[in-house]
Amino acid sequence: MSRSNRMQLKFASISENESFARVTVAAFVSQLDPTMEELTDIKTVVSEAVTNAIIHGYDNSPDEEIEITAKIEGDRFYLTVEDRGKGIEDLELARQPLYTSKPELERSGMGFTIIENFMDEVDVVSVPGQGTKVVMVKRIESKKALFN
After folding, report:
1. Annotated catalytic sites, by residue?
2. Alpha carbon of 26 to those of 15, 83, 131: distances in Å?
3. pTM for the complete prediction?
4. φ, ψ for residue 4 (rounded to 5)?
5. How far apart are CA 76 and CA 113, in angstroms?
6. How far apart are CA 137 and CA 76, in angstroms?
């Protein structure tokens, strides 16, 4: 039996909502019975993508909105984190390890690198002045399958 399900979540672009988003997405993907490592990977990428939207997309403006959509198709988990902020001028540069557009915040510049390492597929679409959409896919190896 192939599973299919989806969810959508919109919330204010404040740092307190990063943990809310992480827990909500983790609860949604739990129906696939992911391993602890897979669940940790997903929670981490949600944190990175939401934090990037808040800090870089919206410059910490609390009056903006972040949208997360998640979908399950069989053993694949699809996750999109989107903002309608200032966008990324040079996407190739932004995806380089250790690059940060805000060095004064003492951030590591590893957000996209972490996301790319923890997910099977990552696509970033960004238009300056219009926002950024990070689309990610991860195949979930159900724990149930490991014991059968």
Report:
1. 48, 52, 107
2. 18, 20, 25
3. 0.88
4. -150, 130
5. 21
6. 7
